[in-house]
Specification:
Shape: globular
CATH class: Alpha Beta
Structural class: alpha/beta
Number of strands: 8
Helix content: 40-55%
CATH architecture: 3-Layer(aba) Sandwich
Strand content: 5-15%
CATH topology: Arginase, Chain A
Order of helices and strands: EHEHHHHEHEHEHEHEHEH
Radius of gyration: 18 Å
Bound molecules: zinc ion
Oligomer: single chain
CATH superfamily: Histone deacetylase domain
């Protein structure tokens, strides 16, 4: 098992850390905890994804908007900060996210060579070619698929699987792959919270909206049933493994314990192993102090399973 991490993933806003509930330094906590574990190696991308790559993925309007502070702050769901320069936002928030995108790309390359990979960042499933929103600026899965197809590592019609187990519906991924029927999406999420887009929910092949407050027993039952409907193998699988399903999370509205969350990830891992799918797990959302603990538990479980 390879874990993808670099110190540059961490988002530290200094005195402004209070402006968002996201614990931007959790990646370091997780990496420190799993370093040295058996069957686990930590590797990082060589650098952030370039803006040239981001631009080639984005539509013409988004290219412009991604350089506008007001637009970026709105996508990050923080109040407008007149005294904070765009260079601060770029260095402290956007650059770490571009490192995260590069981690997803590198992890996918490794996965295609046969190693199960987990990128601690990434899983920016609300971003698309047309917009940035919901604390997601760059759609790392879309950018990764574009690069791998261009390099000939994936065919144009490659069968890609996205299993989205973050508490929020992955509207960005659904929009990016709206016309690409070879991409299968399973999405299990709180149906009563953002994003409420009917259009993108309809794109999901195995669509599992849950009620607010859903606990671990029902969640795992519904997930198991959804996974049982995936019986074909695929060329590459991504898992958006957000930990905002935890009961302690302030945004997800679900009611899973840390053990439930670990069981969830193991269930997905076992399914992907049973269909021999090259797999990349991604960090996704997760805004509580338990988030790092749950990620560490899952990584231990996956490391021991190999
Ligand atoms: Zn989420």
């Amino acid at each position: 098992m390879k874990v993808f991490y670099d110190d540059a993933y961490n988002i530290d806003l200094g005195l402004l850390n209070f402006i968002h509930p996201f614990d931007g330094r959790k990646f370091r906590k997780v990496a420190n905890a799993v370093a040295g574990m058996e069957n686990m190696s930590i590797v990082g991308p060589d650098g952030p994804i370039s803006m040239r790559e981001v631009d080639s993925f984005s539509d013409a309007l988004l290219k412009l908007l991604l350089r506008k502070k007001r637009y970026i702050l709105r996508a990050l769901e923080v109040p407008y900060l007149p005294l904070v320069p765009m260079s601060f936002v770029d260095n402290r928030i956007l650059s770490p996210m571009r490192w995260g995108v590069a981690g997803t790309l590198k992890a996918a390359r490794e996965a295609l060579l046969g190693t199960c990979c987990w990128n601690l960042a990434g899983g920016y499933h609300h971003a698309s070619r047309a917009s940035a929103e919901g604390f997601c600026i760059y759609n790392d899965i879309g950018i990764t698929v574009d690069v791998l197809v261009r390099e000939g590592l994936l065919a144009d019609d490659a069968r890609i699987l996205i299993i989205d187990i973050d508490a929020h519906h992955g509207n960005g991924n659904a929009y990016v792959f709206m016309e690409r029927s070879q991409v299968t999406i399973l999405d299990i999420y709180n149906g009563a919270i953002y994003p409420m887009n009917g259009y993108t929910r309809e794109r999901v092949n195995i669509n599992i909206p849950l009620e607010s407050g859903t606990g671990g027993v029902l969640y795992l039952e519904r997930l198991k049933e959804g996974l049982s409907r995936l019986d074909e193998s695929c060329d590459l699988a991504f898992v958006v493994a957000g930990t905002d399903v935890l009961s302690s999370d302030p945004l997800g509205g679900l009611n899973l314990s840390i053990d439930d969350c670990v069981r969830r990830d193991m269930m997905v891992f076992e399914k992907l192993r049973s269909i021999s799918a090259p797999s990349v797990f991604l960090g996704g959302g997760g805004y509580s102090s338990d988030s790092a603990t749950a990620m560490i538990g899952s990584l231990k479980g996956l490391g021991n399973a190999r």
